[in-house]
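Suppose a colleague, Dr. K., hands you the sequence of a protein chain of 533 amino acids and asks what its three-dimensional shape might be. Before reaching for any lab equipment, you can write down a predicted structure in token form. Begin with the sequence itself:
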Amino acid sequence: MRTLLLLRLRRDRLQVPLWVVGTTLLAAAAVGGVTASFTTEADRHGLLAAVMANPVILLFRGLPSGSGEAQVAVFLILPFLSMLVGMMSVFLAVRHTRTDEEQGRAELVAATPAARILPLAATTLHGLLVTTVIGVGVALAFITLGYPVAGSLIAGLAVASVGLCFLGVGLLSAQLMRTSRGANSLAVWLLVAAYLTAGLGNALGTPSDDLTRLESSPLTWLSPIGWAENTRAYADDVVWPALLGIALGVLLATAAFLVQSTRDLGEGIVPQRHGRASASRMLGSPIGLAWRLSRGAAWGWATGGLIAGVLATSLTSAMNELARIDSVQQLLEAMSQQNDIEQSMVVVFYLIVGVLASCAAVQTVCRARQEEAHGTAEPVLAGAVDRTRWLASHLVVAAAAAALTLAAAIAGSALGGLRGGADLVADAVIAGAGQALAAAVILALTALVFVVAPRATIVFGWMLVLVALLIGLFGPLFSLPEWATRLSPFAQAPVPGPDGIDVNGGWWLLAITVLGAAAALWLMRRRELHPAS
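The predicted structure, expressed as tokens, is then:
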């Protein structure tokens, strides 16, 4: 057990510190953001009153528990901390279970006295330790910055409980699905469903008479993130809702152990889908094959883009209500660089769309890396397809997946505009085109890393999206310097302005995209294949 645990710690010596430090810094930044943006009790009360008047905003935030500074900070940041630790737990669980089976490492370990169960036990212990460290880090961040100790410990416990719950989700998903891609997809979609369920449950909740506290609806109690929010750190400091998440994680992990002890190595509980009797003509080209491998994920990201696009133009009344609060208006203007509140919200929502488009592009490049690592790229390259054409095919499909996400968002904005925001559709088109450049930069840089350091492709691609999101979306909220915020391509993208289009750093984004993609294709000409090791 000790040797297997040390092996996992060594393999994750880069990923785990990044997740721990990133989550802790985000918690710390929330304190500074609330202090700088909502300096008075009246500001915070006005924010909560506007939120209660427009409960759809609660789909993207936490559970209001009061107008104190610490209470507002947890309301704003706890769902995002929960999402981060949930994703970390899922990826960790799948990486050390199903991925090891795919790459043959699990079979080698099973041939030793460790047998079948000890590797799973080591992964569980590894996830438990890392999640605990993140929870402690969040609590210490709040305590160090002056928040009450009891509430800080509850906040750390709430975050850790979500991580432990989705550690169990990841472990069981790895047993159910036959591939790591399928296991990650199942677990992440469950995480997204938990986030949306908690948000919808809060939106259907009952506000207090003074509009500073919300009692969540029963729907919230179907979500582990809802359980974490109902700990109400710095208000009630309730422990038992967090224990529900931990208990569910233990239950799911136990189920994973039971399945692991009975199933065949390399197989899954969910049966593999049978292919067609004959291949379509599309599979006769590398670009057709790349699209076939990535189309499911592309449609999934496009669905997210559609939802964000609808919200961008349909929440006009809610945003006008929020605009009455000076601090909120200043924050939105800083995030979007716009003076018009409606344009500001379109820009902010399309920043999220840009993130979704970037995720679609990064996942396609990561798929190319997986094909190479699993050895399935070799038969393609053994034919008349050279390395440059093979990579170019994946880049074209990645760009198409990003474009599909943006197109779905614009279509959603057109639908949302039917309710009174038709004049914002043109702004949505401009913002979408600008975010296409931001997604193209993420795609080009990920492709370049795929060529020069292939084993770092997956980690680099997703961390690039995450860091760019945190800087671009939360930089103004956390009072980062303007130069730091502009390091994010999402914040540099062209946006609609009062006199047309504000180009921002669009030319720089275009130059980086062209140079990065060209360098990746040129360097790919002589690069050797790098299978998994």
